[in-house]
Amino acid sequence: MNTPNKLTLLRVIMIPLFIVFFLYDFVPYSNIIAIVLFAAAFFTDWLDGRLARKNNQVTNFGKIMDPLADKVLVSAAMVCLTWTKIVNPWITIVILAREFTVSGIRIAAAAEGNVVAASIWGKLKTSWQFIAITTALIFMQKVLIVDICMWINLILTLFSGVDYVVKNKKYLSYK
After folding, report:
1. Considering just the CA atoms, what is the radius of gyration of the chain in Å?
2. Helices 144-167 & 89-111 angle (0-180, nearest 10)
3. What string of H, E and C letters represents the secondary structure of the chain?
4. What CA–CA distance (Å, rounded) separates 138 from 31?
5. Average confidence score pLDDT of the chain
6. What is the pLDDT of residue 110?
7. Sequence-distant (≥ 6) Cβ neighbours of residue 12 within 8 angstroms
8. Measured at the alpha carbon of residue 48, what is the angle toward residues 42 and 54, in degrees to the nearest 5?
9. Cβ neighbours around 34 below 10 Å, total
10. Can you tell me where the transmembrane regions are (predicted)?
11. Each residue of 88-135: pLDDT tens digit?
């Protein structure tokens, strides 16, 4: 197993740890540990992609597991933030619906032997997801800055989702 795939698996392992430290205050500074775990997991996403491309270590496992790990990380964070009433449930539902729709399109494309790369809008959305979720984790309460970041996140999520569906609608047809 190559380094990028190991980093992807590390991200998957960090997700339940993030959830435990976020939801349960059983050690001093649990919330800080949760923030560090979330940031580290997000960093592995950037790093594994960079290493895979730089070292020509792109694998089928990485093509499927990397975006899936990202979706699970974002989903876990959004559900935790909703559970603690920091984020409105409907925002989380819309964001998760976009993430699963895009995953479905990627799976359909993969079934036909194609890989659909993220657009600039998807990358911008991902950056804002990190900013919005990290801001919410830092403040740990519903405040204006968290709401603003989540609204920007929501708008970019919707825009990138529509862009993705329109550009890849051929994978939505029945054969």
Report:
1. 16
2. 30
3. CCHHHHHHHHHHHHHHHHHHHHHCCCCCCHHHHHHHHHHHHHHHHHHHHHHHHHCCCCCHHHHHHHHHHHHHHHHHHHHHHHHCCCCCHHHHHHHHHHHHHHHHHHHHHHHCCCCCCCCHHHHHHHHHHHHHHHHHHHHCCCCHHHHHHHHHHHHHHHHHHHHHHHHCHHHHCCC
4. 8
5. 93
6. 82
7. 65, 69, 72
8. 140
9. 23
10. 7-24, 30-47, 68-86, 144-166
11. 999 999 999 999 999 899 888 888 888 888 889 998 999 999 999 999
The residue length of the chain stands at 175
Residue 174, both tokens: 């029945």
Six-digit token pair at 140? 């740990």
| b/e sequence 62-82, b meaning 16+ C-beta within 10 Å | bbbbbbbbbbbbbbbbbebbb
Domains by residue range for the chain, with CATH: 3-172 (1.20.120.1760)
Contacts of 94 (CB under 8 A, 6+ apart): 154, 157, 158
